[in-house]
Give the backbone structure.
Amino acid sequence: MEPRELLKHFQIEEKEYSVDLHGNGHINHTYAVTVDGEKKYILQRINTAIFKNVQGLMENIVHVTDYLREKIINAGGDPKWETLSIVRTIDNNSYYTDEEGNSWRVYLFIENAMTFDRVENEEVFYQSAAAFGRFQALLSDYPAGTLHETIPDFHNTPKRYLDFEKAVEEDILNRAHEVEKEIGFIRARKEEMSILSDMQKRGELPVRVTHNDTKLNNIMMDSTTHKAICIIDLDTVMPGLSVHDFGDAIRFGANTAAEDEPDISKVSLSLPLYELYVKGFLEGCGGQLTDKEIEMLPMGAKMMTLECGMRFLTDYLQGDTYYKIKHKQHNLDRCRSQLALVADMEIKWEQMCKAAIF
Ligand code: ADP
Ligand code: GN1
Ligand code: MG
């Protein structure tokens, strides 16, 4: 269905809205809904090829945002600014399914705020670290067992490795011979991939309610002051590991180059940004992380970068069906940038480990 047509199914005042593609997310189709030059709503087509249980996913978001709203109000904050607000359908549902079977949702547009696709200055990164840490702390007493697992095994790195090996074996587009070097790089690190999940199984790392997709453009910042306002993209809020939330943010934000930089000589880990994120994240978590979690932060960063590189390569081998791409080699560029970052982390490993000792 045409995006503008959809609006009449939601509890929105009837007006002449314009609806335009918005943002740089890789998963959902996101539109800004504008009236009189002001963006009022976000309209999203949920990617149901990836999120198979939309009902469960939206239930998670309703419950988590209700929970956060109460905490924000109690702290004297503005819930329409500091968490996502779902606009209901005229039937009072949290999403609408059109005749073609597509699922859509509407959020209030978080006004006077913006997302960053790159770390433009240190303060922005520090702010995002504290905010993601705080998000985890706010949800620390949320009943984790009531959350649906919206993507099973999302950060199960050994399982991701098996998916990768299957894609290499099937090689449906005959692309594997082009990427032998990358395949070798990943295979050489196979043993490390189960370190964190094994620690989780042994109870050495606690399962918490985590965001699981902590990249910089999943947080809205005040357009004027650049202070962190609101954590968005709640599709993958599920039980998980704190070190994964830390690591995914590092992989994206502490890379001196873009996630999809084709010139990998520009890729490296910025130690100053890494150290800043450690500080902000620990402050945001408010002393809740155990010593073991703090010790494993560097491993979280390395594993999230390796896992992400492996996921990009898997998608490249499988014909680019998961992530949105802008050109044929896009997933390959993304993969190479991630793997180059892993290699640089290995060089800087000792400094990374020292950064979390205070
Ligand atoms: P994806 O899963 O595809 O990454 P997101 O939910 O992260 O989708 O949305 C994509 C982008 O849209 C975000 O990076 C952000 O810039 C913008 N966005 C999402 N929700 C809102 C909102 N409520 N208000 C303003 N901008 C938003
Ligand atoms: C996707 O949705 P978005 O663009 O914020 C992906 C993350 C990846 C990221 C890589 C649900 O995040 O896991 O790390 O791309 N989200 C999902 O940029 O798969
Ligand atoms: Mg996003």
Remarks:
- The radius of gyration is 20 Å.
